[in-house]
Amino acid sequence: MDRLIKNYDSGGFFDELIDQTGTPRPPAKQLLKYLDSLSADELEKRRVTAEATIQEMGISFTVYTEEGNIDRAWPFDIIPRTIEAKDWAVTEAGLKQRLTALNRFIDDLYHDQNCIKDGIIPEHIITESKNFRPECVGVSPAYGVWAHICGTDLVRDADGKFYVLEDNLRVPSGVSYMLENRAITKRVLPELFENDDIQPIGSYPSQLFDTLAALSPRKVARPEIVVLTPGIYNSAYFEHAFLAQQMGVELVEGSDLFVDRDDCVYMKTIYGPERVDVIYRRIDDLFIDPEAFNPESVLGVPGLMRAWKAGHVALANAPGAGVADDKVVYAYVPELIRYYLNEEPILPNVETFLCERDDEREYVLANLDKLVVKPANESGGYGMLVGPHSTKKEQQTFAELIKANPRNYIAQPTLKLSTAPTLIGKDVLEPRHLDLRPFILQSKDTYVTTGGLTRVAMRKGSLVVNSSQGGGSKDTWIVETKGD
Question: Where is the Circularly permuted ATP-grasp type domain (predicted)?
Fold first, then answer.
């Protein structure tokens, strides 16, 4: 196994596949042994096959630029990331625990607000939240669940432990790429799937369908479920179409639906109106209903909030769920788990400094060159400062932003993000930093994907993994090792 990894050096970071002595970790042994058996030409051939497969399958994402929207082929590395099954079992339990507590928290906020009364979280954190929706107060979604689909970003630090970096509870994306990554890898490395060591991930669409069907206000054999998309120019449109197709449900835009006088939602079909029971909406809150939110929106459905409040349609995720998708609220999640579940958090948070606290703000301002500063409600890697890679001018700009609106900023240490071998050029493996986004589904039951979407910072030394910022991806294997 010397050829590929003899000169591999993770630079002192925790590496997912290779330990500090240069030895493959148990779940990676078979993979690395097999890759080493391939000649340089054969390995290159597999990489080219992956690129051709991506083109053939039309796997793309959209990047918004000043020049316009650009469709790009999905950036993919053929070397999978491996995780031991027994380690994943703990992580899975931690993810279920976390989403259960977050849903209790959201439900409490729109009802009794006991967490505020009991001093668990300050009231102004909620009243100043961009994603708290007064329109949702008093609404009781099925099972008390507001966030039905959650994408939680995990990172491994130098100690090899998983930490939660952030929770995505509004319209989390990326699961289609997780599934497509597996499809590509099966085509490129089919021999490695001949045994049962790699756990399957293909049940996600049926699990998603069951999660949504359980929300139906009508108890019918097959509820009418639709995926509501903003349209073909949205960056995640590929995923919207993919999931609708995989679940066997209709992909619709706002103009395809209407709310009638009975406060029920109907879909326009060639056979006449058809009642809709569940809407998996991939449109932000403020655009889903021009009657309730932004009157200029042409993406939503007039009267949709009325129908939802009347209990005639289910919305996933529920409007208002984004109140917990706030990086300031994130800092309180361990305490929320203790408060609502009377349990210790299984997965730790990354150390977080709240700029609204005077002492923590002073520390952040004095250490901008060492910290990562994030706004409370941005996503996609936008609007953040990565201290060690920033200029003095950028640090000064962020200092002014923090002073002007301290509630809107948090800071975290620059993590020693784990690495994994990535194929760089012909027959050369180099470490690249990565994270992991598993997806958690919750309604009647709770389900966690087997692994998730591994995102890779394709530029050497970079810590930014978002595809919109130049990142790529690779397949994630949960591997049963001997002795599990």
Answer: 80-457
Sort strands 314-316 and 385-386 into parallel, antiparallel or unpaired: unpaired
pLDDT digit string, tens, across residues 74-106 = 788 999 999 999 999 999 999 999 999 999 999
- The Cα–Cα gap between 293 and 289 comes to 6
Place of tokens 């209990």: 311
- pLDDT, tens digit, for every residue of 322-376? 999 989 999 999 999 999 999 999 999 999 999 999 999 999 999 999 999 999 8
Residues 6 or more apart in contact with residue 350 via CB below 8 angstroms: 155, 157, 163, 164, 165, 412, 413, 415
CB atoms within 10 A of CB 96: 16
Dist CA 256 CA 254 (whole Å): 5
Kindly give the pairing relationship between strand 278-281 and strand 314-316.
Answer: parallel
| Sign of the C-alpha dihedral computed for residues 202, 206, 209 and 215 taken in this order | negative
Q: What angle do CA 409, 415, 416 make, to 5 degrees?
A: 170
Phi, psi of 237 (to 5 degrees): -60, -40
Going from the C-alpha of 403 to that of each of 123, 153, 269, 391, the distances in angstroms are: 21, 28, 54, 19
Those residues with Cβ within 8 angstroms of residue 428's Cβ, 6 or more apart along the chain or in another chain: none
* CA-based nearest residue to 103, from 141, 151, 152, 153: 141
Q: Any idea what the Cα angle at residue 339 is, between residues 336 and 343, rounded to 5°? A: 95
